[in-house]
Design goal:
The complex is a heterotrimer of chains A (339), B (326) and C (280).
Chain A (H helix, E strand, L loop, with lengths): L5 H30 L4 H12 L4 H15 L5 H13 L14 H36 L4 H15 L2 H15 L18 H38 L2 H8 L4 H30 L1 H7 L4 H11 L2 H29 L1 H8 L2
Chain B lengths: L2 E14 L2 E14 L3 E5 L6 H8 L7 E10 L2 E2 L5 H8 L4 E4 L13 H13 L3 H14 L16 H12 L6 E5 L7 H16 L5 E5 L3 H5 L4 E6 L2 E7 H6 L4 H11 L3 H9 L28 H5 L4 E5 L2 E4 L7
Parallel strand pairs in B: 3-8, 3-9, 6-7, 7-8
Antiparallel strand pairs in B: 1-2, 1-4, 4-5, 9-10, 10-12, 11-12
Helix pairs in contact in B: 3-4, 5-6
Chain C lengths: L1 H6 L3 H23 L30 H37 L1 H16 L2 H10 L8 H11 L2 H15 L2 H8 L4 H38 L9 H10 L12 H25 L1 H4 L2
Classes of the chains: A mainly alpha (339), B alpha/beta (326), C mainly alpha (280).
The structure holds adenosine-5'-triphosphate, iron/sulfur cluster and magnesium ion (MG).
Magnesium ion binds next to helix 1 of chain B.
């Protein structure tokens, strides 16, 4: 009798949870400004219109856009329906402060900077952290481990932005590195040699602060996983049958890195949201800093857009990581394909 | 004829803070070519420890405290252990440890694992090793398809048999199997025993040391039985002679348990480890004969002095004052 | 109380508790001893630390030590409110899910999963961004943090409860007709109390960190002084890039110390009560 493949059931379940989460998140986002007493959204929209009274022409168009987008005069359920339709079409509306540019355009402008900072920093910390974690696990209880363990715990416990603050203070005191921005105020972004050098010079501190703090997390989780693996029968047998320690270490790395791949996907998804404060500290021109200025300027269109995108990224990363886990680890794959 | 393994007054203890566990304490054991030696004894008497020591697998806190291990005529305890291990592990002595149900790394296919293991020892190309393994699987009656599977796709019995094939791939002198059948059901046990016997008969290993607490199993294939008690060998002789006419009081109690037909008696006996009373502490073992607190025949001398191992009949050794002339 | 005497023999626990209690004492008693108002302008801005102002003066001419002491008090309050709410929710939902099972369990698990997947920092930002700045006081921010961070712990409580439900004496209690609520209160809560304590400690420190994050981003505290507000002002006036370390280092140092001390307490509780983890 043909039964539905449990693997597909699993994927559908995860997909369901993801869609549900996105639905819940966007509903919260929709409802909050509208149900809080005094309807802050309407008040805000009105205020913004009042404040930007310099160019009457532009106010007209901003006003029209906001009315079109929010339809505050319509019943709540209609607004909600519209909101969802817009989301599904990927239409996040237009920014108030950057009018008439769309939210999508503005995100596209800042996102590459954020990714250029985060992806290398997180992948580098993943690799080094896994390596350090395996070393700590293989030397459990010995001096190496006794030094590494508290160090990793302290790194993990310190928020990246605190590191960032200390690094900036250090940079200011020593003048070794520029303390803010992604490039010198006088430089013009281009692919020229001098710009790249300038960029890298600015890059080092924010990179370090993200690299070091995520290093702690990777190292600790890798150590835990590897210690569990070390107590398994197969690690004992590997030694008994005389597999060299080097080969054993590579097995251990492979076994323990599998769950860590899942972690990598999740963390990459989270990192954009997680590094908002770090970017602010370094005045690094990425999504985080942009979100901060949007909050300062109370550009609700942008704020809403960033939230949708950040939550969407995280949910997607979560979903992908679960699928990766099931596909990459033969044990899990077998469990789902089983019987 | 030479011995594949010979130990002389072998001592290996677990060094704990509250004292040393004397799990192998003065063992003299000779295993010749073409022998299947069954090692029996109650739980905790040091069987697994002995197997680890013979494979030179010393994991802290286990430590070699004294004595010699001679493998194929070479005293391997006179060279650094890591050095010796490199030379003998998997090639001269191949151990299949107790609870080796999940012994193969779960993220590799069986053939890749075998290739990894053998390549490190021989330097042969991978395809050649896999071919070798395939041929070997066929010879001893394993479906070669198992090579392409992941270990968790194999049944418990198949895993044990794959391990036997892997352990004998390089034709070791001695294969040590520690409780290879105890986690399996009866019909699967038979298959594993058959595979073990096949690798012996075909000369893929010169000899086998078979560790078990189940005398009924070991009886089916062993040529000789060694009885361990509290870290020492107390009796050693041909299988059927020893089972039907055990000399040592401890062996007597042990054999009684399998020769008793009534299930109730058997059950009671098995639950108590065959003999009334507690197994002795291995940190502070009783002086003299270690069995004396539980022995119905214990005499004064037993409490004072350790009985020597003597050959009572041809090929039958026992360490008990009842047989030694003092 | 032999458990307490046992715990006091663990150096990690004693050290963690001592550091934490010192910080609590600073927040509670500090302002009574160091009687300088945190909001008064006491001198020229950015005066470095000196005997009269041990931690210097901030961007608005206020005494940093006074700010710090009140900030500790405020942050501890946020932590307590948030951790109390999150603990209450997660303990309630986790144990209920385990004891009642079935549909109740399924629904609670899906909700908690949604709350785990949606990052609480973002959820908090959404919640806080739309609250008018004047309304964002300690209680409200604590509340916002509390209701967004219970998901993972609810799962923890659920699985611990599940394993206790397997034990014989609980089965006896169920057979003898005890109500499920009384089983939770009388049998389960006492057994998992160390885990409850440990989770409270971790919730507490992550709430303090979350408040700092929210406030720096600009959706947190506006008037009530917390560690976050001190850092927000420092960030707003670009103190860090000017090298004004005395408004930045003290509050962050306190944050790290709170984390480390509660982390030590939590892991020693965990190690003490689940020996499997403890044996090296
Ligand atoms: N890692 C260890 N550390 C300390 N003591 C140990 C260790 N491993 C085994 N022992 C002790 O050494 C003694 C012998 O153990 P061993 O495993 O060799 O017994 P065994 O005869 O194989 O028993 P079983 O039939 O249960 O497998 C036991 O008293 C055991 O408690
Ligand atoms: S030596 Fe004595 S105590 Fe030991 S077995 Fe023989 S008779 Fe019993
Ligand atoms: Mg054993």
């Amino acid at each position: 009798m043909p039964k539905i493949n449990p693997f597909i059931v699993f994927i559908l379940k995860r997909l369901g949870i993801m869609v549900l989460s996105f639905f819940v998140a966007s509903t919260i986002m929709f409802l909050l400004p509208r149900i809080i007493p005094g309807n802050p959204l309407a008040v805000k929209v009105y205020q913004i219109l009042q404040q930007s009274a310099s160019n009457p022409e532009m106010i007209k168009s901003v006003e029209k856009m906001l009315m079109d987008y929010f339809k505050l005069d319509r019943p709540l359920y209609e607004q909600y329906f519209d909101f969802l339709i817009n989301l599904l079409h990927g239409d996040l509306g237009k920014s108030i402060t950057y009018f008439p540019r769309t939210v999508n355009e503005i995100v596209a402008m800042y996102l590459p900077w954020t990714l250029a900072l985060l992806v290398p920093a997180i992948i580098a910390s993943w690799i080094v952290g896994n390596y350090v974690g395996v070393i700590a696990a293989m030397n459990r209880g010995k001096a190496v481990d006794k030094v590494l363990l508290p160090l990793l715990a302290a790194l993990q416990g310190t928020p990246a932005y605190v590191f960032g603050m200390y690094l900036v203070l250090l940079a200011v005191a020593t003048k070794w590195f520029p303390a803010s921005g992604a490039y010198s105020p006088t430089a013009i972004p281009s692919l020229s040699w001098s710009f790249i050098v300038d960029y890298l010079h600015h890059y080092i501190l924010p990179f370090l602060s993200i690299f070091l703090t995520s290093l702690g997390g990777w190292g600790l989780s890798m150590r835990n996983i590897a210690i569990q693996e070390l107590s398994m029968d197969y690690m004992d047998y590997a030694r008994v049958i005389g597999i060299s320690p080097r080969k054993t270490q590579s097995y251990l790395f492979r076994l323990s890195a599998l769950p860590q791949i899942v972690g990598l996907a999740i963390v990459l998804g989270w990192s954009v949201a997680g590094s908002i404060i770090t970017e602010i500290i370094f005045a690094y021109p990425g999504i985080g800093t942009a979100l901060w200025s949007a909050i300062q300027a109370q550009d609700y269109m942008l704020i809403q857009g960033y939230f949708v995108i950040l939550i969407g990224t995280i949910l997607l990363a979560n979903f992908i990581s679960e699928i990766i886990f099931a596909v990459v680890d033969p044990r899990v794959r077998y469990a789902y394909a089983g019987e | 004829m030479g011995y594949v393994v010979e130990t002389i007054d072998l001592r290996a203890y677990y060094m704990l803070r509250r004292g040393s566990v004397k799990a192998v304490d003065g063992v003299n054991l000779k295993i010749g070519e073409r022998e299947i030696v069954g090692v029996v004894g109650e739980s905790g008497c040091g069987k697994s420890t002995l197997s680890r020591v013979l494979a030179l697998d010393f994991i802290p806190p286990l430590k070699l405290v004294g004595g010699k291990i001679i493998i194929d005529g070479e005293d391997v305890t006179s060279i650094p252990i890591s050095e010796a291990r490199k030379r003998i592990a998997g090639t001269k002595i191949s151990l299949i440890p107790q609870s080796a149900m999940n012994a193969i790394i779960p993220v590799t296919r069986v053939k890749d694992y075998i290739a990894d293991v053998v390549k490190e020892k021989t330097g042969l190309p991978r395809e050649k090793i896999v071919d070798m393994a395939r041929k070997r699987f066929e010879e001893i009656g394993l479906p070669p398809i198992a090579l392409d599977m992941y270990p968790f796709e194999l049944s418990g019995g198949m895993r044990q048999r794959v391990l036997i094939a892997l352990a004998t791939l390089l034709n070791p002198s001695l294969l040590i199997a520690d409780e290879p059948t105890s986690a399996l059901d009866v019909s699967t046990q038979k298959m594993v025993l058959t595979t073990l016997y096949n690798v012996f008969k075909m000369g893929l290993t010169k000899s086998i040391m078979f560790i078990t607490h189940d005398i009924a199993t070991v009886r089916q294939i062993a040529t000789r039985i060694v009885v361990m008690y509290a870290g020492k060998i107390v009796e050693d002789g041909p299988t059927e002679d020893l089972i039907h006419n055990p000399f040592h009081p401890y062996s007597k109690a042990l054999m009684f348990s399998i020769l008793t037909p009534e299930p109730e008696v058997r059950k009671r006996v098995e639950q108590t480890g065959g003999i009334a009373g507690e197994p002795p502490s291995l940190i502070n073992p009783p002086p003299g004969c270690r069995f004396h607190p539980r022995c119905p025949y214990a005499m004064d001398v037993c409490r004072r002095e350790e009985p020597p191992m003597i050959e009572v009949e041809k090929g039958r050794f026992v360490a008990c004052w009842l047989y030694a002339k003092k | 109380m032999s458990i307490l005497t046992d715990l006091f023999r663990i150096p990690k626990f004693v050290a963690g508790l001592a550091i934490f209690l010192t910080i609590v004492a600073l927040g509670l008693v500090g302002p009574l001893i160091y009687r300088v108002s945190p909001t008064d302008i006491v001198g020229p801005r950015y005066t470095p630390p000196s005997p009269s102002h041990p931690l210097g003066i901030d961007a608005l001419g206020r005494d940093v030590l006074a700010q710090l002491l009140y900030g500790i008090r405020g942050s501890l309050l946020v932590g307590a409110v948030a951790a109390g709410i999150a603990l209450g929710l997660s303990l309630f939902l986790g144990t209920i899910a385990a004891v009642f099972g079935g549909l109740v369990d399924k629904v609670i698990m899906v909700i908690s999963e949604v709350f785990i997947i949606i990052p609480s920092l973002l959820l908090m930002m959404v919640l806080a961004a739309y609250l008018s700045p004047g309304a964002r006081n300690i209680w409200l921010v604590g509340f916002v943090i509390g209701i967004t961070s219970w998901g993972g712990w609810a799962r923890g409580f659920r699985s611990r409860t599940m394993s206790i439900l397997q034990s014989e004496f609980i089965k006896m209690a169920i057979l003898s007709g005890a109500s499920r609520v009384s089983i939770i209160l009388r049998d389960i809560v006492p057994i998992i109390s160390p885990y409850i304590l440990a989770s409270f400690a971790m919730l507490f420190t992550s709430a303090i960190t979350a408040e700092v994050g929210l406030t720096i981003v600009g959706v947190g505290m506006t008037k009530d002084i917390t560690l976050g507000l001190i850092l927000y002002i420092a960030q707003l006036y670009a103190n860090i890039t000017q090298g004004i370390w005395w408004t930045v280092v003290p509050p962050t140092l306190v944050m790290i110390l709170i984390y480390l001390s509660l982390y030590l307490v939590a892991i020693s509780l965990d190690e003490y009560f689940s020996p499997k983890l403890g044996t090296a």
